[in-house]
Each structure stands twice: as structure tokens, then as C-alpha cells.
Amino acid sequence: MTSDWMAEDEIPSTKPNRPYKLWAMAMLVIGLLLGVLIMTIVQPSNPDLHTPSTALIEECRKRFSTTEQQEACITGLDLTKEKDTSNDSPVDEDKSSTTITGTGNDATVDKQRDFNIVALGAAQTEGIGIKDRTKAYPNLLSPSAVNLAHGSMGPNMHAICFDTSFEDMEIPDIIVLEDWLHYEEGLALLASRIRQRFPNALILFIEDAPPFFYRKNADNAKGFVNFAQWYEANQDELKVANNNNDDDDDAAAIAQIKAKLTAEADSIGGDWFIPPHPNADDAIEDIMTSVGAVHTENITDNVGGVLWKMLPPLDTGYETLAANVEYYWQERSFSFRNLNEAGHAKVANELLDIIDVARATKGVPIDNGPLGSDSCHIWHYTGDGIPEDRDNMMLVEYRPNTHYYVLELDGSYGWMNVTNPLAEAVPLYLSYLTDDEEGYLPPEAVVEIQDSNGVSLGSTILNTLFEPAPTHGVIRTVAVSQPIPPGQEIKVMFTVTNTTATEDNFRLSGYLFSVTAPNEWYFAPYDKPNHR
């Protein structure tokens, strides 16, 4: 007789009793369920992928904020397309929008993006002219943005000190370059080094064209006036806003400027224009081609870079100025050279639109590692990196309002010990201040290099004078030695030769070892010899 829960042909030769059969079936079901669960946990979502490496796991955990994103990155799900995290990203929760005070039609910044952004450039990118420089446009693009821009330093510094600039930094997804008029000062080298080390980073070339750059024909010695001169000449008529930061006064002043521009549109002076820079334009085109960059009208997903004009030209110059002058209006400053806070918000919004197209799909950033090409110690902007082993050289903040630092020679003699940490023999370079129109007249100095045994490796005269003197001085950087072997410590001794000619002290801004630095180059707080 067969069991009522088993078919005739399923009866085993030795029949177990009913309780044992129920227990066996239960164990079988539980075993199957456990197997499925274990396979779900252990097996990668994509069976074609090999076991993820420790490096990939660490990178994914560092790059993404949620567990779901990290697991997707590790197992290979959607590595090239970032999931919409507007509801679960801590950045988006806290940064739904940012309101910026100041003049302008739109002073609200869209949601920041979850990208690592590094900004290199000049005054606009640094945020010169606004009270809170954390509101400069790079910082409005992403909460993790690093703004390394500084005045008119130019691209040479970051090109020659590339490894040092990106030391201990998160791998950048996007790098901003706002230095198009300084193209002769290392821009091509900087762009090529960015592409060599960070092959899939988006490079944003910013072409800055503030109202200050615009010219209008005039009957004077120069044959033209710039926009700031035009404003000054019409100041009384335009009823300059007072200095109590009244938004209504600002809006009224801007409205008058726009009306004046429109009224003069067909005047005998002709239209406003920007002097052409054909050499700069050609050089930028070559640089763009070398890194896979395109113009804004040709943007596609995952292009290598984009050239964006900060003040996009309209049909006529006066229309362009009328549409954008409000973003450069600053109380107590009528040069129309630098963006105000609303201008930075406008720039940030337009760049975010570009980023959304150029990086519609977001991959894991790649870092090919340091190029091993430099070790730079420039304390001019931070006061950091001075040699510990030194004598008669004191750290001085010589421009307290701008926080510029130098090692000042205390008397006629001083020295410091430094070491070449690179893997190849390279010269030692010294960066020091020259004279300026504000009255700083540094003495000439002789620098002698000795090895650890006291044997002289040569000497060099450091010329501290320019003819004519630049307005705010420059920082000259020169090679002062033959190539120093890897790991060798040297003693750098300074002797002032004309102490009776000036009361000022010799000022050192930094030193560096570099594979690619030219024998002599410049960077500056403000002016450079070829941009006075």
C-alpha cells in the first residue's frame, strides 16, 4: 500500500516512517535556500568580472558616498554611468541650491556636482574683488573643489611644480585652466602634464574677457579708451552709487550704464571691441587639440576638454557689455576687471551646464602617478615649506594685507641646507623678489653652493633690479647650480654685496628642484616683466 503523499513509482525500496521524511524534505529546502543566499552574497553581479582588487575596493569606497554606489562600483555595475543620487547623496541633501548676494539677474547656484575639481588660474578664478573667496566660482561647482588659482602667477608655476601642486590631493575629475593670455608662460606644458597624469580628466579652458578688456575708438593719443576709462569720464552723468552697499543704488547705477551704452551704440566712436589676440588664439587651439578639447558648440559626452568664453560675445560689443556689466560691478572698485559674487554664481551655473553634458556619464578617475619631475618649496603664498636647517634668515609677512611671505636675510650673510629628493640630477633653483615702484630696493646678493664636505660647487650673482621697475615687483626664479646628484645635501650661502646702497633686505620666496624648469622664469604677486 502506498503512502497518501507519495506516488507509487516514487516509493523507495526501504520505506522510512513519515516524521523522518518530513524532516529530510525540510532540510533539503533549507539547504537550497542557504545555497542561493550564499551565491547572492559571494558571486559578483557581473559573472564576467574577476574578483575585485583591494585597490579597486578602496578607490570605490573613497569615490562614492552610499553603500549602493560603492557596491555597484566594486562589482562592475554601471562603472561609467553615475546613478542619480539627488535623494541619497549627502552633498545634494545639504546643497540643493546656494544663494549668493550681490548684483545680477540670477544669484542662485544650481545643485553642486559630486566631482573632484581643481582650479588653476588667475584673479577671476581666485576670487579677487569679492569679500568671501570661498564664493569664487570653482567652490560653487563642487563641495570638494580645490582652488589653487592665485593672482597673475601664471601657468609656469604649476607646470614646473606639477607633482608638488597635486601632492596629497584626491584624483581630479575636472581641472579648470584660466590662463589663456599667459599661454607663453607654460600653458602647453601644464596641459600636457595634466593629460599625462590624469588621462580621463575633463580640462575646462576658461577664456576670460571682462568689460575692462573692451576698447572703443577715441580721439586721444592712444586712439581708444578702455571701458574703465569710459566709465570714469561719464561718472558724473551716471550718478555713481554710494558706498553703503545699497542694492537699489547698485541696480540704478547699472541701469544707467546700460542706457548710456545703448544710447551711444551708433555714435561716432563706433562699437566696443576686444583687441584681437591671434597668437594666443592659435596657441590655445593647438593646446586644445593635444588634449582632446573642443569648443562649447561641439561638446559631447566624455570629451577631453572644453574651451568656454567667460563673457560670450553677442552681435555687438555694446550689447555684450550691457548684458554682462552687472556681473562685474563692485562697490568702491570701478575697473570692471573682476567678477562680483553674482558674476561668480552666473559663471558657476554656466559651467555646471557644460559639465552635465561633457560628463553625462562619470567614470572612475585615473591617476598614472607622480611624474617624478619636481620638488618645489614656495612659501611666498602660504608661509609653509621653509628649510628648518638655516641661519640668519627669518620668515617675514611682508604684505600683511595680502599675506605674502619671504625669508628675509637678517644682515649681510645667511645660509640654508637643502637636499635634492628626485631620482635624477637636477639644478637648484631659487625664487627671490626684485625691486618695485612702491619703494622696495633689494640689495644684490651672491649665492654660493657647497657640498656636505664644504667643497664649493660654484657661485651666482642674483640680480634684483629691473629696468624699469615693475609696479609691484616680480619674483624671479633662476638656476644657481650645476645638476645636484640625487639625495645629495647642499649648503646654500647668501652674501649681500652692496649693503650701503639700500636699507632693504634680500628676500627669498622659495627654492625648487625640477627636471623641466627653464634657466630663468618669473611669477608674481601682480605684475610680470612682459605684462606691465
Walkthrough of the structure:
The chain has helices spanning 18-42, 54-63, 67-75, 90-94, 123-126, 137-141, 156-160, 162-165, 187-197, 227-233, 235-238, 247-263, 278-291, 317-324, 341-358, and strands at 98-99, 108-109, 117-121, 146-147, 174-178, 202-207, 215-217, 224-226, 293-295, 305-309, 374-378, 390-391, 393-399, 404-409, 413-419, 428-433, 445-451, 456-462, 475-479, 489-496, 507-514, 520-523. Helix 2 (54-63) runs antiparallel to helix 3 (67-75), helix 9 (187-197) packs parallel to helix 13 (278-291) and helix 12 runs antiparallel to helix 14. By secondary structure, the protein is α+β, with helices and mostly antiparallel strands. The protein starts with 17 loop residues before the first helix and ends in a 9-residue tail after the last strand. It is globular, with a radius of gyration of 31 Å. The strands form five sheets. Strands 11, 13, 14, 16, 19, 21 and 22 form a seven-stranded antiparallel beta sheet that branches. Helix content is 27%, strand content 20%. The longest helix is centred in the first third of the chain and has 25 residues, at 18-42.
